[in-house]
Specification:
Layout: E1 12-17, H1 25-32, E2 38-41, E3 50-54, E4 57-61, E5 74-77, E6 82-83, H2 85-99, E7 106-109, E8 113-114, H3 117-129, H4 141-149, H5 164-178, H6 185-199, E9 203-204, H7 206-215, E10 220-223, H8 247-254, E11 263-269, E12 272-274, H9 287-296, E13 308-310, E14 312-313, H10 314-324, E15 328-332, E16 342-351, E17 354-356, H11 363-367, E18 370-377, H12 394-407, E19 411-415, E20 423-425
Parallel strand pairs: 1-10, 1-11, 2-5, 2-10, 5-7, 6-8, 7-9, 11-15, 14-16, 15-19
Antiparallel strand pairs: 3-4, 12-13, 16-17, 16-18, 19-20
Helix pairs in contact: 3-4
Amino acid sequence: MKNDSLKNWKGVACVIGVDWGDSGKGRMIDDLGVRAHIAARYSGGSNTGHTVKNKFGRFALHIIPSGIFNKNATCLIGRGVACDLESLVDDEMVQLKKAGVSWKNLVIDQQASLVMPWHKLRDGMREEFRSSKIGTTKRGVGPTYADRIERVGLRVNDLILPGFKEKLFTEIEIQNKFFKLKLDANQIYKNYLRFTKAVKPYIGKTIPIVKEAQKAGKNILFEGTQGSFLDVDFGTYPFVTSTNTGVIGIWRSFDLHPSKINHIIGITKAYSTRVGAGPQPTKIEGRERQIIIEKGQEIGTTSGRTRDPGWLDLVIIKAAAEFNKITALAITKLDVLTGFAKIKVCTAYQKSGQRVDYLSGDAQFLSECKPIYDQLPGWTENISQVREFKKLPKNAQNYIKKVEKFAGVPVKFISVGPQRGEVIYV
């Protein structure tokens, strides 16, 4: 293990899921965010949920960066985010206001796409018609990105430009005609006047802010969404999200080349989870499944669905590390595995009698892969108060060493509890 610690990180950093998401990005951003001058969201929308528990309370954020709790940081919502104003204004800002947390330093990129009511309706309709569900959260993110690519979507800046009402009414007429919706244009306009009033002071250009901060040598922290295997290109298509969840997403959102990122932190739980549809080779059944669900509180922040637990899949972690050029790994919820006599880790796949690696962008391929496991001895000691790696039980240390040796990436952050500070910096 290398001696340099993320506790005192400097420069440009990002936190990216190296699995299917739900791995504790919000919790880690809250820890690392105390050193950030800039905290930025670059992809996803209200289909993502980042849970943060700190001295201010417990929060479920979807659009606002988890770095919002650092009052000295400028928080950016990049142009790559599908901006759901209903979530932002009526949910997240309400949560923060009740807790006395300010969002005065928030900047919403004027080029970010707006998630509109018809996107949510179409998302749900499409899922209902599918014979094979993909597990969408029905938050309208896919149709929002589709409209962006088709060059017909509304963007944040449209809210404050002349002619917004006319543009909105025209689009609603199109949606009602072609998708047989029954949208009330006047009610939608009324709602968006209220949303606009709430967000207008925060609309701006985020790319110049990032560029200037980089030139000044300030600390910039990018917050990823979901995980690498939900990336629209790299992930288990079609059981993916509709955007780039890895380092490419940062480039697209903020015009910052991946080579400029000093710390590319890949985050995963000490076991794997997946919510919704799609293959998961190491999925666990039986009593061990229930133990992990209960101890890990594996209920989705956004969907409310129970996540399927699995043994840690080192094959996909290594693939995501190579794809994103990960420089450090973060392991969360190591404490959940306390009490297991034996712990499995997947070190290879077998398909049709042959050993195979992960094949990018092909869910069917992965569904036919069978895991090959190594089995490690577990530990029974309570590790929630441990703050130094060398004070972990020997078997817990060996588990972490197994992960970093296989992935070829040092583990630098190990969470042993859900609260800020309940972490081992290696």
